[in-house]
Amino acid sequence: MTIILQNPSTFFVRWVDMSKIAWVAGASGLVGQQLIAQLSEDAEFSKVIALVRKPLDIPIFEHKKVEQFIVNFAKLVAPTQKVDSLFCALGSTTKKTPSYDDYYQIDVTYPYEFAKLGKTKGARFYGLVSAHGANIESLSRYLKMKGLLEKDLSKLGYTNMVFARPSLLKGDRKEFRFLEKLSESFVSILPGNFKAIHAKNVAASLIHASNHAVEKKRFLSSKEMQKPGKIRFSN
Predict the structure, then answer these.
(1) What are the pLDDT digits (tens) for 91-126?
(2) Which residue among 9, 13, 54, 163 is least crowded, i.e. fewest CB within 10 A of its CB?
């Protein structure tokens, strides 16, 4: 169903499609859970599919719009025959995945294959949680992987592709990360793109982009994602 929203002060008219379907990969993580929670309350989406490796007993997944779809990311299959927007928050850590090959598979191969599959089902938008400093020339193995992923995804021909590049993420994690918690207070007072950012703002920025983006490719800096509603998009 579609409706027309009109702003009386500016006579701005925008069509709002209330039947969009979203797929979310990495739904169990910090940003992923925020994506599920916020997408389920977004009027433009009628269905939110969380691609998960095992069933998750988390309250936000009980929303009537949300469905869990059990997948093997190494042999990914489509949960629906049509999709409009893809959101990818897949990622690991060196502690969880000490093997470089396994790390690369989770952080690069899986997000790329997820994007390829979505494109075959009609997806027009792909939003990725990347990282501040992502660059194929980076000396950091992690940032280089993120840069390589961004480069590969850019070749897939999506109508709109948005790369969120957050700094240190804040939020309630299910596991305790000592070093990140130790540095959070310090990073929270840093300026610009170095300032720590809450996961809910990263999720909100990607959803805002999915509803408003017009550029073929857009990078969202950590600084501008601190205020998602003020992000502007142009040709």
Answers:
(1) 998 888 999 999 999 999 999 999 999 999 999 999
(2) 9
